[in-house]
Design brief:
Blueprint lengths: L1 H21 L5 H36 L9 H56 L4 H27 L2 H5 L3 E4 H18 L3 E5 L5 E4 L1 H18 L5 E8 L3 E7 L32 H11 L3 E6 L5 E8 L2
Helix pairs in contact: 1-2, 2-3, 3-4, 4-8, 6-7, 7-8
């Protein structure tokens, strides 16, 4: 556009010189020349500003992956090619990193899972040996390895995007879910003389993945059994609302300080009252991720008189 403006200005100047030579002493040629020059400059500035804005808009469209450019292909092509090339390289790198990370997380989870069988066998053989400091040490070390492997599996699930890819919600029985989760904590609850109770309406259903949701519910129950006092009671109840099912897990434990309630869902967070207990602080993080991946949510509140109320909300339909 700049060469056209210069050419037009030269033509206008030549015309002014010609007219001015024929009309010596008149001010009209000079006035018309100044007016036309000003209009031409203003038009040129406005056009350049509009083209610059269009170019900026097209750059943004290029970054967003769109191709409906407002300016000519000749003007946008060099910049668009560079931006598209850069954007493509970044997307390709991100895909490779994400895929590698997921493969690594899946591999870690599989290896940790496969290690459970020999560890269980080693612990069983150690328990069959005559009582001695050596056999007790073997059992203790296998328990530590088992704990670390469980933590590694949970961490790989949190970090590797395995939850979103493998959770498949469908209509399932809430009673069967609660029964499956409770059965996993019965041995530890019996060792502390605790009472487990379930108050689930018959034929109540919700939309969830049974295996993953049982793990989320089991994490909350495991914490309740771990931190509640001996001889206390843990109750799991459920009720239906219009759009969701609410599962409540009530315990008679010490509760959680109010300032820590928003923090317990964060990865690796350990409360002040639980730092001496076993765990690495990813169980509730995994629980929240599982529930949210199914369109639900989870929250915790302290009960009046002591204990906690964990609530899991799952879609009803």
């Amino acid at each position: 556009m700049t060469p056209l403006f210069i050419l037009g200005w030269l033509v206008l100047t030549l015309a002014f010189c010609l007219v001015n030579s024929l009309t010596v002493g008149s001010i009209w040629p000079t006035a018309c020349y100044a007016l036309l020059t000003g209009l031409m400059a203003a038009g040129f500035a406005s056009y350049e500003r509009e083209q610059r804005q269009k170019l900026l808009d097209d750059v943004q469209k290029t970054l967003e992956g769109k191709d409906d450019f407002a300016v000519s292909e000749r003007e946008i092509a060099p910049l668009a090619r560079q931006l598209k090339l850069k954007r493509g390289e970044e997307e390709s790198r991100d895909r490779r990193v994400t895929e590698s990370y997921r493969n690594l997380a899946s591999l870690v989870s599989d290896i940790a899972h496969q290690c459970k069988t020999p560890l269980t066998a080693a612990k069983m053989y150690a328990e069959l040996l005559p009582a001695s400091p050596e056999s007790a040490a073997i059992v203790q070390q296998t328990d530590k390895l088992q704990f670390l492997l469980d933590a590694l599996v949970k961490l790989s699930r949190c970090e590797g995007g395995l939850i979103e890819e493998n959770v498949h919600p469908a209509e399932n029985s809430v009673e069967a879910l609660v029964s499956q989760a409770l059965s996993a904590v019965v041995p530890e609850a019996e060792s502390k003389n605790m009472v487990l109770a379930a108050e689930i309406p018959p034929e109540l259903t919700a939309i969830f993945d049974p295996r993953w949701t049982a793990e989320a519910l089991g994490t909350i129950l495991d914490n309740a059994v771990k931190y509640a006092p001996e001889g206390s009671k843990i109750t799991v109840s459920a009720q239906r609302y219009d759009q969701f099912i609410r599962l409540d897990i009530l315990d008679q434990g010490p509760g959680i300080p109010e300032d820590e309630l928003p923090e317990i869902w964060k990865r690796f967070y350990r409360g002040r009252t639980t730092r001496d207990a076993s765990g690495v602080g990813i169980g509730l993080t995994l629980c929240r991720m599982i529930v949210q991946a199914q369109g639900g949510r989870v929250l915790c509140q302290n009960r009046e008189g002591g204990g906690c109320r964990f609530s899991i909300f799952l879609p009803a339909e």
